[in-house]
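Check my protein:
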Amino acid sequence: MGQTRSTVQVAEAVRWLRPTFAEAFPELIAGFSLRHGGVSAPPFATLNLGLSTGDRPEHVQENRRRLAEAAGFDVERLALAGQVHGAKVRVVETPGLYPGYDGLVTTAADLVLGITAADCAAVLLYDPQRRVLGACHAGWRGVVGGIVAATIAAMRELGAQPAALHVYVSPCIGPAHFEVGEEVAARFEPEVVRRRPEWPRPHVDLKQAIVRRLLQEGVPETQIEVAPHDTAACTADFFSYRAEGGRTGRMLGFIGRRA
């Protein structure tokens, strides 16, 4: 595992991060948006990609269109998880919204899986040998509830092998800002709980919690890329639910395969 060397892609002022491993697979479309290049007004400024935020729907749709155009996919081929902080995963073959699911997997070409986030992580997975794709929404509830294992299990049902997976863990809230109660800290392994004398309550390293679960499922450490960004520390580039008081936009993690 290494800190990701993902590069910032720029097209018509829309900005997103592209996983390094995507460069090795020309058929792959994958990335994680920043908050720049859209049409939304504050507090959703400007590239808000989430419809559940209170933003104007027409703004969100235009933002999605802009990102899709910049990243090179058809916005009409976007399949989105409904996201309820659970661990349910669905195999999908067609675009649309899938309520009640936090993970989506597919073997379909020209279908882009999407996860919205604003402190939680979007985890993007690809088996290039069997061309199986996965994406999951990994907040703390989903992580302790088993969303990572459930997503990989669903991919295995489609023929994927954990040893062949390349995985990107997107920007999310970092341990310096992810303060939790003792009851939440107790649901994590001690290795990802952080304590300091100046902190009144424990903090959790969400990215490391995700990485540990990927390793437990058999994903090679060298095939896991972890974005270094802390969304709560960099609201100039990222939306952060916690840092911005709960009223903000959403980024989009996306992964798909060209035919």
